[in-house]
Amino acid sequence: MNGWQRLQQSTFAKVGALILVVLYLGATFAEGIAPYDPYSSQTDGALLPPTQIYWQTRDGQFIGPHVYPTIQGAIDMTTGDRALIVDWTKPSPIGLFVSGSAYRLFQIRIPFPHWRSPTLPLVNPPLNQPVNQPDPPTSPTASSPWEWDEVEIIPGIPSTIHLMGTVGEAKWNLLGTDEQARDQLSRLIYGSRISLGIGLIGIMITFPLGMVIGGISGYFGGWLDAGLMRFVEVLMTIPGIYLLVALAAVLPSGLSSTQRFLLIVFITSFVNWAGLARVIRGQVLSIKEREFVQAAQGMGGSPVYIIIRHVLPQTMTYVIISATLTIPSFIVAESVLSLIGLGIQQPDPSWGNLLSLATNASILVLQPWLVWPPALLIIVTVLSFNLLGDGLRDALDPRTLEQ
After folding, report:
1. What is the pLDDT of residues 327-353, one digit of tens each?
2. Percent helix, strand and coil across the chain, each rounded to 5?
3. Residue 22 CB burial class (10 angstroms; 0-12, 13-18, ≥19)
4. Bridging pattern class, strands 82-86 and 108-115
């Protein structure tokens, strides 16, 4: 029985893989799946509970699933309650593939730095300028000669069709609204792009770096091996989460969420590649003594060619398993940094900064629908990766395959 057949027999691995496929498809098609713009606010709609769905009108007429326009009323100074005001005269049917806000599907914009020519002060001010006029205010990043602009790589497909929504004035807030009257479900769907994407981008940086350094160290040995492994051991002694907090705390305040996202990825990757390099180095020490490697050396193959073509491919089983178990650490790191206010900043959504509302005791008690969904998504995602990783480990274990 081969590894693929064993993986298909693992129920937990299939469940984890199915959940991850659904989550990543939702992140890919976020614009079309989310019912509303995650940045737009509703009028008098702050902290609305999940919208109640009705099937019949007030007079008992069945019109199918629908909702009514709902806003927050005034606060009762005696009890502290805030009544909801519902307009029963305007039922809005719930439907699939309804028209809504405009968006561009698959649009990709990446920040790129460019040199900003410094503005030199005037030697002689204009004649019509008063002598005691104050200097114009300067921005926090005015001293930096670099500026970051988002460049559109792929323009995307324009559309206004959303997977679900309402036909009419009412809004269907399936998970309620936040303190800025923004739809919570839409922000969760858009936030999955950052929380799920940070793991994939992180391993794209961590694993090539760890494999190359571990392969070079194990293949050449000697003083190069000793020096690289001492450097790896120093990195492994650094507490990852404390390094992330320390480095994130000194980031400039004027960074956008995209720039913070990239910095978090690079910082997390810098911490995580050392452990992989150490394991790869141990495997290469054994692989380089095999006959096919010695035959390649005897035929005059260069060390770089032998490492890339013959040695490192033999470690792919471990690399694939390790990747599925490493991605959750990137997701948790982003969530922790955003939770304490050092990661992705508002108004851009991520599961971490959506979960940061849990630090407010009143939100946790009175509006639990703002806290539990991002917490459950993080737990389910991490658990799914672990289930898939355990299934891959059991299916691709050489000892199991030999049996």
Report:
1. 888 888 888 877 777 778 888 898 988
2. 55, 15, 30
3. exposed
4. unpaired
Q: What is the pLDDT of residue 151?
A: 78
Instruction: List Cα–Cα distances, 252 to 142, 260, 262, 325, in angstroms.
Output: 12, 10, 14, 32
pLDDT band at 53 (very low <50, low <70, confident <90, very high): very high
Q: What is the CATH number of domain 3-28+184-402?
A: 1.10.3720.10
The dihedral built from the CA positions of residue 156, 157, 159 and 163, taken in this order, carries a sign that is negative
Please check the confidence at residue 261 and state whether its pLDDT lies above 80.
no
Distance between CA 94 and CA 87 in Å, rounded?
16
The number of angstroms, rounded, from the C-alpha of 372 to the middle of its chain's C-alpha atoms is 18
Domain ranges of the chain: 3-28+184-402, 44-74+82-104+144-166
Residue 250: Cβ within 10 Å count:
7
pLDDT (mean) for 178-203: 91
- Of residues 40 and 257, the one with the higher pLDDT is 40
Q: Distance from CA of residue 118 to its chain's centroid?
A: 35
C-alpha gyration radius of the chain: 27
Tell me how far apart the alpha carbons of residues 183 and 48 are, in angstroms, rounded to a whole number: 9
pLDDT of residue 122: 47
Question: What pTM, to 2 d.p., does this model score?
Answer: 0.83
Is the pLDDT assigned to residue 361 strictly greater than 60?
Answer: yes
Question: Could you give the 3-state DSSP secondary structure of residue 359?
Answer: helix
Tell me phi and psi for residue 291, to 5 degrees.
-65, -40
Residue 189 φ/ψ, nearest 5 degrees: -65, -45
- 374 torsion bin: left (phi>0), alpha (psi -120 to 50), beta (else): alpha
Q: Which of 125-134, 238-247, 368-377 has the lowest mean pLDDT?
A: 125-134
Rounded distance, CA 73 to CA 226, Å? 69
DSSP code for 137? P
Asked if residue 368 has a cis previous peptide bond (ω within 30° of 0), the answer is: no
Share of the chain above pLDDT 90, in %: 33
Backbone phi and psi for residue 320, each to the nearest 5 degrees, phi listed first = -65, -45
What average pLDDT does the chain have? 83
